[in-house]
Design goal:
It is built from 2 helices and 29 strands. Helices cover 3% and strands 32% of the residues. It folds into 2 domains: 5-9 and 227-389, Beta-galactosidase, Chain A, domain 5 (Distorted Sandwich), CATH 2.70.98; 33-219, Distorted Sandwich (Beta-galactosidase, Chain A, domain 5), CATH 2.70.98. The chain has helices at 92-96, 291-296; strands spanning 19-21, 41-43, 46-48, 50-54, 60-64, 69-76, 82-84, 116-117, 123-124, 128-131, 134-137, 146-147, 160-163, 169-176, 187-195, 200-209, 213-214, 218-219, 237-240, 242-246, 259-260, 280-281, 300-305, 320-323, 329-335, 339-343, 367-371, 386-387, 393-403. The strands form 8 sheets. A 9-stranded antiparallel beta sheet has the order 13-14-15-16-29-25-24-19-22, with no helix packed on it. By secondary structure, it is mostly beta strands.
């Protein structure tokens, strides 16, 4: 596997200037080929649009305020050619997933591509949790559990979008009323995307509440670093800095155990101390005769990230690293969260027709969702997801893009 000594220990660097493209009377297609006019609509009584960030290196990130979603990310490959490295659609109505009555999120092809997920990313067992002695019932939209905040979670809501005065970032804001999908408290949440000249997309989450509630936000981008979604992600290489994972049952719900990962097992993506840093092929054991692989239909599990060394910031060290051998594009993920859900696109089946008319087949995208552990509200011994009045929920995730022929010291 590709030697990654030069990629370890990357640090977050200050965020320089970024420019933004706003809506025009005659929209100009983005570098990724998106037509901004196809993202102009009125959904749930609110207007949607496309927001574009660029940096000094020519990198481009396009977002829509429907679901606070990342629509495209154009980054240079090892030869300097720009590639779009996330799955998604080329119009806002496909993201909306409306049923025959126009109800957003209730159609036949659910979509979480690129979304800012809330209130609670991942699954809550049996759609129930108890907080301060009160039991709350949530919608059961995934094998008897509540997934990603319910069937009309934040991925199907229209955020208010505001570009910063200096056009360095866009902030997506949402107010979720008390009782929204069964969750308590009126929550005001922000998700700010900032693109830096170090080819970092920094995602900052903040939220407050007027009564005790739970919250766990993440981004649900499906990455295909080859830049060609007809390629499977099974040939990509991966490192996850973890020695433990949370097993799941046949309904994809965590069992409550934190299990040590056996060296050499399908879940071992951690380089050994006595070896040169290297990566592991995603598909090497994705169909192994392993109970957890069968339960997850591949990878759909939470890895417990290693604790941060004393004196270091969580954002000083990577949580995981993904690389495409075809393009040479490397994604370094850093986060303040305790876990990362790695989902290998097991349920993609060709029914979703994405950008440029490409049908997304099984395992043509991989998600690296930084978050609290699944079903944390029912596991008081795990890192808490409770938010109370007067407190502020804060979380940061960094997606940094480099290449396999680039050193961290290289300057653009």
């Amino acid at each position: 596997m590709k030697n990654l000594t030069k990629f370890f220990g990357l640090a977050v660097i200050a965020m320089p200037m970024v420019s933004s493209c706003s809506q025009k009377v005659e929209p100009v297609p983005t570098k990724s080929g998106l037509d901004p006019q196809k993202f102009v609509a009125e959904i749930n009584g609110k207007k949607t649009g496309l927001y574009t960030l660029t940096n000094a290196n020519g990198m481009e990130v396009c977002l829509t305020n429907l679901g606070g979603r990342i629509v495209s990310i154009m980054v240079p490959d090892r030869n300097g050619e720009l590639k779009d490295v996330v799955l998604g659609f080329d119009n806002v109505l496909q993201y909306a997933n409306m049923d025959e009555n126009g109800n957003v999120g209730l159609g036949k092809t659910p979509s979480d591509f690129g979304a800012c997920i809330g209130r609670y990313a991942n699954r809550i067992g049996q759609g129930k949790f108890t907080l301060d002695g009160v039991e709350y019932d949530l919608p059961k939209n995934n094998f008897g559990h509540c997934l990603h905040g319910g069937p009309t979670g934040w991925q199907y809501q229209v955020y208010d979008a505001e570009m910063s005065d200096d056009s360095t970032s866009v902030t997506m804001s949402i107010t979720s009323p008390d009782g929204d999908n069964g969750f308590p408290g009126t929550v005001k949440a922000n998700c700010t995307y900032t693109l830096t000249d170090d080819n970092e997309l920094v995602i900052s989450y903040n939220a407050t509440t007027d009564k005790p509630t739970i919250i766990n936000m993440t981004n649900h981008s499906y990455f295909n670093l080859s830049g060609d979604p007809t390629n499977a992600i099974t040939e990509d290489s991966l490192v996850i800095f973890s020695k433990q994972m949370t097993p799941v049952d046949q309904t994809y719900m965590t069992t409550g155990e934190i299990r040590d990962i056996e060296p050499g097992s399908p879940f071992d993506f951690l380089p050994k101390r006595d070896e040169a840093p290297h990566m592991f092929q995603v598909g090497a054991q994705i169909d192994a005769e392993d109970e957890q692989i069968k339960n997850g239909n591949g990878y759909d599990h939470n890895w417990v990230l290693l604790p941060t060394p004393e004196g270091a910031s969580k954002l000083d060290l990577p949580a995981c690293i993904l690389m495409s051998p075809k393009s040479g594009i490397v994604l370094v993920v850093k986060t303040t969260e305790p876990g990362v859900q790695c989902y290998s696109g097991n349920f993609l089946d060709g029914t979703a027709i994405g950008k440029k008319g490409i049908a997304y087949q099984q395992r043509t995208g991989i998600c690296l969702e930084t978050q609290k552990y699944p079903d944390t509200p029912n596991k008081p011994e795990w890192p808490s997801c409770t938010l109370r009045p007067g407190e502020e929920y804060e979380s940061i995730t960094v997606f940094q893009f480099i290449t396999d022929n680039q050193r961290p010291s290289d300057k653009k």
